[in-house]
Design goal:
The protein is an alpha+beta fold. The chain contains 3 helices and 11 strands, in the order βββαβββββαββαβ. The longest helix has 15 residues. The relative contact order is 0.26.
Length: 159
Amino acid sequence: MRRAAITAALLGLAITAAPAARAQLVEPDLQARIAAPVANGHERLHCRGLSDAEAFVRTELFFGLSRPGGVVAEQDFKGFVDAYVTPRFPDGLTLLSGVGQFRDASGTTIVEGSKLLILLYPRSDRDADSKIEQIRTDYKRAFQQQSVLRSDDASCVSF
């Protein structure tokens, strides 16, 4: 299997991951604080030492804006979010604009505009993974993209 590295630079933060792998960006201290084994051997996520915090999953999706024949216009991206993301995650989301880069199969570094979608949702949301994968599939199909980078992490969230 070819393991080309993809580097997404967004808002001054660089994240490197193999294309087929989800980035593992959990700090060891954070992981120890939010995951604790229970008697049956399964992990139960909880936030120790953080008052009124809840265990959530944080998923980040990195969308490239270049496509064959041009770029994804701001209005088109907003339409995509309104039609495909908001109905699946109506409780809220965060969307940031930036510049990303990656190395293509020929070794050329490609720099393009990008969007970072941040979703926070309860770990108990059993449908979240399939909804997120469908968003990735819909975007690739709608805008002729090769991939949408996904990063998942555990978070302690307080409202």
